[in-house]
Each structure stands twice: as C-alpha cells, then as structure tokens.
Write a structure and sequence with these properties.
The chain is 50% helix and 16% strand. It is an alpha+beta fold. The chain has 2 domains: 159 residues, Up-down Bundle (Butyryl-CoA Dehydrogenase, subunit A, domain 3); 114 residues, Nuclear Transport Factor 2, Chain: A (Roll). The chain has a 6-stranded mixed sheet with strand order 2-1-6-5-4-3. Helix 2 crosses helix 3, helix 3 packs across helix 7 and helix 7 packs across helix 8. The radius of gyration is 20 Å and the shape is elongated.
Length: 287
C-alpha cells in the first residue's frame, strides 16, 4: 500500500499533534510532519502494511532524534523555557478539533512538565495516555519490548504527577481568569488571595531575546509585584484579550500593535498555581 495525498490530509492532524506535544514547538512539529510523509512516499510499498502505525513510527522516531540532538541546546537556553504557545485561531492549516485530538496533554503546564522526562519516557507517555495506543503498537513504534514500555510509562507518570490535579474545564477556568483580571485591575488583594496560591510561581521566557526574569518568580507578593511593574512600564497602546491557547484560556498581550507576550495559567482546585509568560518573539505568533 502506497501513502497517498488522501492519507496526507487524513493523518496530518494526528502526526502534528504527536510532534507538537513531544517537542513543544509548532514549527519543528510541522517540519517533521513534512519529513515523515516524504520518507513514507519514498518507501517501497511492501514496507507499509498499516499506514497509521507506520507514519506514527516515523514521526515519533524523528521527534526522538530531535529531542536527543537538542538536549544540549535546551540546557544552554537563556532563562526559563516555556513551550511555544499554540494560539488556536492562528492555525489556518488545520481544523483545531481535528488537530489536537484531545485537550489532555496539551496545556502549557503539562508540556512544561514533559521537559522533566527522557525522550523515550515522553514518547511512551504521550502515545499511551493521550493517544491511547495499545502497548503492542507502542513497542513497535519505540522498538522496545512491551514490558519495558509499561515500566517506562509508569516511571514517566510518577515524574509528572504534579499536574494530575490540573483543571481543564475551559469555561470554569475562563471565569477564574476574568475574576483575576478584575481583582488585579482594582488591586483587590483579598479577592486575589482567593484566586491565587500563596506559593504561586511565574515562569518568564524571554530566551535571551527580550528582558525577562532568568529564574522563576515565587510567592503571591513577588509575582504580583512583577506583574504590576510590567503594567506600569507598558506603552499607552497596551491591551490584552482572553484567547484559546493550548485549549485553555490565556491572556494574549499586545504592545506597539503586535503580540508582545502570552500569559498562560495552571489552575488546580480553582486557584492559579503557576503562570507562564512567554515573551521570546521566536515563539510568538505573528499578529
């Protein structure tokens, strides 16, 4: 069976979804999707018995190669590393409902935790937990025994247990963020304390391209001081909108007529536990 143009349109969303979750980068995921189909087109017909599994294997292994080769680059990254925000309305190539398959495993908090996993752990966790692949298929894709895949999955789950309590209810989270905005604008500290964890942490990603906090900002008072400081220095044309980013409500912040940053949230038990502000221009969509 030869891979066809129809297969390209059918499987492209799934492959992009795997690639983005593994790498945290839209551009890299899109590039590897193209490379996957190129390799499949060039393959001899007898090698392709089950197209979906075959394409997923190529995609996953190309992502593993990238992860292993970019590990040093990530270690040299200036300051905090946040995944590239996925502003869904900017995805004109795909229907978002098809692209993302499931909202699980897509939030910035989840993708950020993936950085604590090894390459194989990341792949096996995603294929099993997010895409519900049977262990027999995962073993074939990763080229490891089923028993080993089960052990790696269990180990990976333990490492990211911190995000197990994350709320993925878009409507409820939007209400919380709207209340946060109102309390923040009115400087209502009592209301803010109800909405934000006392130990809240803010991760600021400038990538060395723009000014950003090198280390995480920890505690209610420190995070609010930083945010109020940013607002004071903002130009007159500063404004923000709540938009769907990674299937969760986030603040898209505009300055000087373009997107300046995206502020995403990790919400658990109806409280903001972490914030992720991405300012690196290489990670922001062009408005």
């Amino acid at each position: 069976m030869k891979v066809t143009k129809e297969d390209y349109h059918l499987f492209k969303p799934l492959l992009f979804s795997i690639g983005y979750r593994m790498l945290g980068s839209v551009v890299e995921a899109e590039d590897i999707v193209q490379e996957t189909f190129l390799r499949a087109y060039q393959s001899s017909e007898e090698n392709i018995k089950f197209k979906k599994a075959y394409l997923c294997k190529i995609m996953t292994n190309l992502c593993l190669d990238v992860l292993k080769s970019t590990r040093y680059r990530r270690e040299q990254y200036v300051g905090q590393w946040n995944p590239e925000p996925l502003l869904l309305e900017k995805l004109q190539t795909f229907d978002p409902s098809e692209t993302l398959i499931e909202k699980e495993g897509l939030s910035i908090a989840y993708l950020r935790m993936m950085e604590h996993l090894g390459a194989d752990e990341r792949a096996i966790l995603l294929l099993r937990e997010v895409f519900d692949f049977p262990y027999s298929e995962i073993a074939n894709i990763i080229e490891k025994k089923e028993e080993n895949c089960r052990k790696i999955f269990s180990r990976a789950k333990q490492k990211i247990s911190r995000v197990e309590g994350e709320s993925l209810n878009y409507e409820k989270n939007t209400l919380i963020i709207n209340r946060f905005i109102e309390a923040f604008q009115k400087q209502n500290m009592d209301a803010l304390l109800e909405l934000i964890s006392e130990n809240v942490t803010l991760f600021s990603d400038g990538g060395g391209k723009v000014t950003a906090a090198i280390r995480p900002i920890v505690s209610f008072s420190n995070v609010l001081s930083l945010l109020y400081g940013v607002i004071k220095k903002a130009p007159e044309d500063f404004y923000f909108e709540i938009k769907n980013v990674n299937c969760q409500p986030a603040l898209v912040i505009y300055m000087n007529g373009k997107i300046q940053s995206i502020l995403s949230f990790y919400i658990s038990n109806e409280k903001i536990v972490e914030m992720y502000i991405t300012m690196n221009p290489e990670k922001l969509p062009i408005h």
